[in-house]
Design brief:
Length: about 140
């Protein structure tokens, strides 16, 4: 069954995502699919290039050529109708329930501060909980306070 981690009260989702991706890829040698709205994935693509000069996180968009996707630890989005090349970790930055999350070993769900994010996060939490997934909570806001 998919392990689920919910990171909530996240003030800066892009910076938090960059830190999570660095830890997953460089620290645990994991492969990650990131789900979210296209404009947020574009911003994450840019943020990953500037994030840490000493730590390159190999990443590409879902529409990259197959040989590029095969060499990238992080895939930004999923191509329509195409299954991911791995099923290790999914990172959700979007509001809707991430489609196909149950096929992954682990889901990391990031929830920001605004009301729409919190409401969508609670809805996703109920979905996970109602289906018997164990959920690990991470209050990101308490660390930065």
């Amino acid at each position: 069954m998919t392990e689920i981690d919910v990171h909530y009260n996240t003030a800066d989702k892009l910076q938090h995502a960059c830190r999570l991706l660095r830890k997953a890829v460089l620290g645990a040698d994991a492969q990650v699919v990131v789900q979210g709205p296209g404009e947020l994935l574009d911003a994450l693509d840019e943020a990953l290039w500037r994030f840490s000069p000493a730590d390159f996180i190999p990443h590409c968009k879902a529409d990259a050529p197959v040989h590029v996707r095969g060499r990238s630890a992080v895939l930004l989005g999923l191509a329509e109708g195409e299954p991911p090349s791995h099923r290790q970790v999914m990172l959700n930055l979007g509001l809707p329930l991430p489609q196909g999350f149950e096929r992954f070993d682990r889901l990391i769900d990031v929830v920001g501060f605004d009301d729409d994010e919190r409401l969508a996060g609670r809805t996703r939490w109920r979905h996970y909980s109602d289906r018997g997934y164990a959920i690990t909570r991470h209050d990101v806001g308490s660390r930065s306070a």
